[in-house]
């Protein structure tokens, strides 16, 4: 590693002192990978015919025309034209499609509710069975305690 300048203990950033060695190692690996990726990049090539006036990639903007440009209410150029898009909407067809979708949703919900009800009944039965088993166990323990 090359070092410039005077020697001092905190010359290189090694991460937070409270971090684990594992975390510092991961950070160092990522730093090395990023540095290697940066070294692989070639510097941008200079365009032929570019003069010193274009240093830094400055681009001159063309003069705006004086004619009025149609704009939207937000001030940006509008890409919509005044003519129609040519779409024809069939209200009856849309209504039938909506009714079909509502019918599907209702049948899906009915199936879900039936499954939910069956699962709820299974849960209640399992809880009742578990409670009965715990009561029998408690009764057995009480009988053993009374016998001793």
Quick one: biggest sheet?
none
Number of helices: 2
As a whole number of angstroms, the C-alpha radius of gyration is 38 Å
Mean pLDDT: 78
User: What string, H for helix and E for strand, traces the elements in order?
Assistant: HH
Question: Stretches where pLDDT falls below 50 for ≥5 residues?
Answer: none
Beta content comes to under 5%
Task: Give the overall form.
Answer: flat
What is the distance, rounded to the nearest whole angstrom, between the alpha carbons of the first and last residues?
Answer: 80 Å
What's the total number of strands? Answer: 0
Which structural category do the helix and sheet elements fall into? mainly alpha
Helix share, percent: 40-55%
Topology:
Layout: H1 21-40, H2 91-147
Describe the structure in your own words.
- This protein is an all-alpha fold.
- The protein has helices at 21-40, 91-147.
Which properties best describe this structure?
148 residues, mainly alpha, 2 helices, 52% helix
Short description:
The chain has 2 helices and no strands. The protein has helices spanning 21-40, 91-147.
């Amino acid at each position: 590693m090359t070092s410039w300048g005077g020697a001092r203990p905190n010359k290189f950033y090694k991460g937070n002192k409270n971090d684990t060695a594992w975390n510092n190692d991961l950070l160092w690996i990522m730093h090395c990978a990023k540095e290697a990726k940066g070294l692989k990049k070639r510097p941008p090539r200079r365009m032929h015919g570019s003069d010193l006036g274009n240093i830094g990639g400055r681009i001159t903007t063309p003069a705006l025309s004086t004619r009025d440009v149609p704009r939207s209410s937000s001030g940006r150029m509008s890409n919509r034209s005044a003519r129609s898009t040519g779409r024809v909407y069939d209200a009856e067809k849309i209504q039938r499609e909506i009714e079909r979708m509502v019918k599907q949703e209702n049948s899906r919900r009915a199936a879900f509710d039936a499954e939910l009800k069956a699962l709820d009944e299974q849960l209640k039965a399992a809880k009742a069975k578990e409670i009965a088993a715990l009561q029998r166990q408690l009764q057995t323990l009480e009988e053993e305690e009374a016998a001793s």
